[in-house]
TrEMBL record:
GO terms for molecular function: thiopurine S-methyltransferase activity. It is found in: Cytoplasm. Keywords: Cytoplasm, Methyltransferase, S-adenosyl-L-methionine, Transferase. Belongs to the class I-like SAM-binding methyltransferase superfamily. TPMT family. This is Thiopurine S-methyltransferase. It catalyses: S-adenosyl-L-methionine + a thiopurine = S-adenosyl-L-homocysteine + a thiopurine S-methylether.
């Protein structure tokens, strides 16, 4: 795995099993939105759609999706997803943003096509560690030839904090994506803030990877 130069010395923990039994349900994530426990949410959105791209997202919380459109001052429509009972898709009136409200693992049933780019922030690190292989397989199945996949993950001492966000090692990224992708770490950034002290940790490093087709 290629790596860029960095001044951050990130310790890798050999015991990748330490968080393997940690499980959050879909109801847990929906409750986080209701109780406003959403420190993972960024007020300033990423400007993909503003640059002319068609954007597709997946979110389990209908509240979170509706708030997105309200925050961005966008009108939208909603319709059921016939292949996934109880699921909906919310589409901006401009037609370039589609947000699916469903379990991500049900998404392939909706036949949403394939993608040139994936920006994975706050998703892979939130998936229960035991589900990562299934998640990675779905993401890779959605990629077109010549794809680029950006993935943001975190390094910290997983023996001190149970997550989420969950700890992700370089070895696990290589194991899950390396057979199909060339994996390059673009940067490592000190993401530690005062609020993270309550997690019981003393450092937090955000790592950004680029996956491209081998």
């Amino acid at each position: 795995m290629d790596d860029t130069r960095t001044s951050l010395d990130v310790k890798e923990y050999p015991d990748t099993e330490v968080q393997k039994n940690r499980i959050l349900t879909l109801e847990d994530w929906q409750e986080k939105w209701v109780e406003r426990k959403i420190t993972f949410h960024q007020e300033q959105g990423h400007q993909f759609a503003d640059r002319g791209h068609s954007v597709v997202g997946v979110e389990i919380s209908e509240l979170g999706i509706r708030e997105f459109f309200t925050e961005q001052n966008l009108s939208y429509s909603e319709e059921p997803i016939k292949e996934i009972p109880g699921a909906k898709v919310f589409k901006s009136s401009s037609g370039n943003i589609s947000l699916y409200c469903c379990n991500l693992f049900d998404l392939p049933r909706a036949d949403i096509g394939k993608f040139d780019r994936i920006w994975d922030r706050g998703a892979f690190v939130a998936i229960n560690p035991g589900d990562r292989k299934r998640y990675a397989d779905i993401m890779l199945s959605l990629m077109r030839k010549g794809f680029q996949y950006l993935l943001s993950v975190f390094s910290y001492d997983p023996t001190k904090y149970a997550g989420p966000p969950f700890y992700v090692s370089d070895d696990e990224i290589k194991r899950l994506f390396g057979s199909v992708c060339t994996c390059q770490c673009l940067e490592k950034v000190d993401a530690f803030e005062e609020r993270h002290k309550s997690w019981g940790i003393d450092y937090l490093v955000e790592k950004l990877y680029l996956f491209t087709e081998k």
